[in-house]
Amino acid sequence: MRERSDGGARPEAVLAILLIVSILLIIFSGPLHGKAGKEWGSRFVLGIQQVTGSATERIKDGFGSLRRLREIRLQYESALEKLGDYQGLERDLVELRRENIQLKRQLEYSAGMNFNHIPARIIARDPSNLFSSITIDKGSADGLRVGAVVTSFQDDFFGLLGKVITVARHSAQIRPVVDPDQYVAARLQKSRYDGLVEGRGTEGGELTMSYVRKSAGPLITVNDLVVTSGMQSLYPPGIVIGRIKEIRARDYSTSLELILEPIIDVTRAEYVFIIGGDG
Amino acid sequence: MMGRILITGTAGIIFGILQSVFLSNIMPLGIVPDIAMIILIAASWKYGSLTGEISGFIIGLSLDALGLAPLGFHAFLYTLIGYLFGRMHNSISPGPIFLPVLAAGIATLIKYGGAFLVSLIFGLNSGAIRYFSLKTVWELGGNLLLAPLVFLLVTYMAMIFEGKRGGFN
After folding, report:
1. Could you report the predicted ipTM of this complex, rounded to two decimals?
2. What is the pLDDT of residue A190?
3. Which residues pair with residue A195 across a beta bridge?
């Protein structure tokens, strides 16, 4: 039995039309034609994402408050039974101290930055697990513009996270530095040799630094830091990109290939600082 | 039919946004099950190819706008998934557990296999697309676990809406 409620349309014909439309969209918004075609859609959906993100945060806060109320009640009951038992309270205190230290560090970092910067919070990530985009809660209304550099603070390091690629009024989309479509002019912090860093698209989010002169080999060691060079690039100099994890030297090649571990783990980042906005 | 497409498309978009905003923040490593896709296969199975492919196209476009994918990338994959699982309509009932789990597994493989082929054919940066990694296995696991629940939810929602409005014809 066929569908009776389809107005006579053949599913195969509709499928063909929709697939052709999809293919045309891919062609006209793909790498050959830039991303202009999808910007209108992204701006609209980014707006929805921003509203949902804020609502989610409020809900999370609400649930957090409920959770905390429950914890306090449990602690009260526990205190009635055993007055000397401060374990639950102590656990909360440790968590608050940890959070306090983390926020203080972010604040010190923000205050100590030499660039004009806009702090923002990560509110969403790619919905399909196939790509690596990040959405933040600041947009053009806050002075953000396409191409602005995104940094973050993690494990005592101020590091490069990516760049802004789409800006809506109150939200923006970031392409992380680990994305293979992203190239950054880089320099070895100690030996001062230049190279080009790009994402490898691997599961561990590693980066590759290419075009490093082979003569630099003896001066380079694992764990050396790699920073932005600022040369012919939108990235200001001196921002840490990553640490050398592996040095590869091939006989037939005139340059070294360095495998880097990014200094900022994108999956753990919560807050970012945007440099190069109008704010 | 318009009502079915509207409900399926809206549910898919809502879950797509929830996946990116909420689940990606609470799940370890940000790996989230593709609930929007499971809703699509459940609705396609229930209502047929036409509803499935149009809903898939709408959901896919919204996912394209939410991420770094070129416009049309997810639209292509989800249209295909909607059509294929719509073919099951009137031929076999999904039942409570086994077939929904199997369908979610096959759909996940179609999604990742299709992503590989689309990126190959259209010259997209293959490194930008994460297929067949440990994260894919995590997503597959999540999809398999959630499939019976989402199929049940779609059946329940269909009963509510169709019961109230006498169908979406």
Report:
1. 0.81
2. 85
3. A186
